[in-house]
Amino acid sequence: MVPIPSVSEEESIKAAMATQLKKKELSDLHLRIIIKQEANQGNYQKAIAILDKLIARLPNSAIDYNNRGLMYLKIADYDQAMTDFNKAIALSPSLDRAYNNRGNCYAHQGNLSKAIENYEKALDINPYNQKVWINQGITLRELGDYPLAIETLELAKMIGNQYLGRIYAERGYTRYLMGDWNYAISDYRRALSYLPEGHRYQQKVMKWLAKVLKPVISQSNLESDH
Question: How far is it, in rounded angstroms, from Cα 149 to Cα 137?
């Protein structure tokens, strides 16, 4: 006959199980912290290796598939990225960031119409996802629809202040392509006022600004010589 544990023993067993579960949760959290650190340092392959372990442990975690897909996207492995984004969406059809990332993957592959389709789906789920509005604006610009790109970036700006530097930068570049150089210069300068020192977008905007200022400065020098 199997002995029945007393109430105190049963409580001890439950407490031990709870402790083990807590340790496991902390372990998962610790792995995610390491993944973020590796990704921030550009060590995408290391991040992928850790995500492999995490997914083996949590095979139904849509967020981890999405994050691994993002790492594959960073190293331009679009097939693997697409596989992971599709898996994330299959596991969690309401995960707006997975549609956004899949849209980015399509955009990198030159399939801009599919990119827009995924951004629209992401916005249907979460219309306050500022990153999606920005990505959609950039893609509309790539499609040559400059007015709609500007309008979309304006909508992104209305959502919040988190990505204002990037929004002004992309709006400035769109205006540059439209030939509105004064507006472009103004937006680039606004972007630089929001972007922190050393931010990856800062160098990009400075190059864009130098490109638009070069002919203006050259023309000014010519006029001063006369």
Answer: 4
